[in-house]
Amino acid sequence: MLLTLAGILVILWLLGFLAFHVAGGLIHLLLVIAVIVIIVHFIRGR
Fold it and tell me: Where are the alpha helices (DSSP H) in the chain?
């Protein structure tokens, strides 16, 4: 579940970064959240 959420956040980040150069801070916040979710997923070991 966490990995799916992280994948969705990365895809949204890519779409926002490549298509809509408007909200730069919010787009990079999505990437940071996705990376944190991936790290938590690997730490829990599930």
Answer: 2-19, 24-44
